[in-house]
Every structure is written in structure tokens, then in C-alpha cells.
Amino acid sequence: MDNTSNKIIWLASYPKSGNTWFRSFLTALKTDEGIFNINELKTDGIFSGKEFVEQVLDLETDELYPLEIKKFQNLSWNYISKNAKNKQFVKIHDAFDFLPNSENKPFIPDDATFKAIYFVRHPFDIVPSLSNHSGKNINQTVKFVNQSDACFIDLKKKNSAAANQFNQHLGTWNEHVKSWLFHPTFPVLFLRYEDMKMNTFETFKKAVEFMELSYSDEQIEQALEMTSFDKLRKQEEDKGFKEKSVKTKFFFNKGEINYGKKQLTEEQIESIKTVNEEMMKHFGYWH
After folding, report:
1. CB-hemisphere CA count at 13 Å for 116?
2. Torsion angle, CA of 103/69/121/113, rounded to 10 degrees?
3. If DSSP states are collapsed to H, E and C, what string results for the chain?
4. Is the pLDDT of residue 234 over 50?
5. Handedness of CA 237, 240, 244, 245 (dihedral sign)
6. Dist. CA 149–CA 151, nearest whole Å
7. Buried b / exposed e across 73-88, counting CB within 10 Å, b at 16+?
8. Alpha carbon distance 71, 108 (integer Å)
């Protein structure tokens, strides 16, 4: 049992950057019987989930004011971390923001946090993937990626997974990446999606070691084999995937690198580069 209070490892990303693939890999690592099911991911929820505030603080979240929500999320995750027996692996799409009227107190609780992994992907490749997920066309998605007040939420159906989440402020792709690069005081490991694809074993092993998990090379290789893109897609085709948006046929759509540029016009490419230049250059996405 882990006796420290900072037990959460945040699995952070701008949407469609490899977060679900990594959560699948973690689940496969934890699966003793060698059977992996994409609809039974063994991670610990999403930061934006309303259920965590409702259960911990016994609140009706739909009645909260927007300025209250961040404060209550912070309190709830502190409580969850303090009372957890072991490390918690929590997905988060929110940019690294600060609590309102708090003199720069992080919205994501430092005291609850052990470490974070941030999955970063070329914005050219994010655009068609996010377009497929959201049901918006490419031009609308380019505008979204370039939008400072962009938020990730879709209340398309009252009983949908998204309806059970709080709004998640993203900002532009550049602002989102930059917020996680410069604001956290806890350790953050950045993993490029391209390295996850091209140098798979080395990249995932680096993440396992960073999280201070004890798994052998053989276990890592087995988990990666169980969660290859083709196998994830095949499971979704056979069983469906409960995290899939109702606006798309498949969650696991392409999973390719250097695919997005072929889908974008020169004008769209220049628009993305103009808004997101700093972090594109920082992570080797400029050329």
C-alpha cells in the first residue's frame, strides 16, 4: 500500500493525442489473465467527471456556478488521492489552469499529484482525428484548434458520457501544450505520439519507469502486443467502444502519423502554423 497522499498520475493530453491507447496499455499491463477488453479499462476515471464531485462532496453538480466547479474539483481529487490505497491513473483533457481569485493556485491539486504524463501529437494529425470524433468538418476543426476559448464538452445526449462531465477548457493547441510544459510544479513526462508509434517499446518502457511501476520487458511487450491499433480497432468493430462519440462510426479511426497534412489545404496549414508556432517548433513539428 502507498502511504503517501500524492497518489495521482495524470494522463494528460489535448484530445486525440494517444491518451486512450496509453490507458489501454496500462490496463493490459494490469491484466493477469491475458484477456484485454477495451470496455473495461482499469484506470481511474477522468478529472472532468461529475461523479467524483457528486460522490465526495454530496453535491448536485448541475446546480453549481462555473466558478465553484473548479474549486470543488480540486477539493474532490485531493480527497480521492488522500484516501486511495494505491496510485491512481486519471485521464485529463483540461489545460493546466489556476483557480479563480486564488493568486495562481493550480486548479489541478498539487497535494494529490505524484506525477503526470502528457501525450503530445502533431496538430496536423489531430485535426482529422478530432474532426472524425466531433462530427465537425476539417475547416471547423482547424478553427477549434486555433481558438483560445475552446472547450471540450458535448452534451449531445442527456445519458451520454459527455453529459456526465464538466466543461474542459483547452485553449489553442499551443496554449494547451504550453500550459502543461511550464505551469506544473510536479514532474511531467512528455511523450510524443510519433515516438509512441515509431519507437514503441522504448517509449512505453520510459513511461513505465517514470511512473515507478515494476513490470518486466516481457510484460511491457505483451501489453503492447495486446493493444496494437489493429487489435483495438478489431475489438471496437466486434464489441463497440463505450467512449466513442455518437457522431462517429469508429473511435479508433486511423492512428497514423503524417496523415493529417494530406487532408489539409495550404491555407489551413498556414493557419495552424501561425497560431501554434511556438510549441510546434519546440516538439519538432515545424517541418
Report:
1. 30
2. 70
3. CCCCCCCEEEEEECCCCCHHHHHHHHHHHHCCCCCCCCCCCCCCCECCEHHHHHHHHCCCHHHCCHHHHHHHHHHHHHHHHHHCCCCEEEEECCCCCECCCCCCCECCCHHHEEEEEEEECCHHHHHHHHHHHHCCCHHHHHHHHCCCCCECCCCCCCCCCHHHECCCECCCHHHHHHHHHHCCCCCEEEEEHHHHHHCHHHHHHHHHHHCCCCCCHHHHHHHHHHCCHHHHHHHHHHHCCCCCCCCCCCCCCCCCCCCHHHHCCHHHHHHHHHHHHHHHHHCCCCC
4. yes
5. positive
6. 6
7. bbebbbbbbeebeebb
8. 10
Q: Does residue 133 have a pLDDT over 60?
A: yes
Report how far residue 166's alpha carbon sits from residue 154's, in angstroms, rounded to the nearest whole number: 10
Q: For residue 229, what are the CA distances in angstroms to 19, 198, 248? A: 13, 13, 17
Strand-pair category, 113-120 with 8-13: parallel
In 3D space, the residue among 109, 125, 122, 127 whose CA is nearest the CA of residue 5 turns out to be 109
Q: What are the pLDDT digits (tens) for 100-124?
A: 877 788 999 999 999 999 999 999 9
Confidence category of residue 66, pLDDT binned at 50, 70, 90: confident
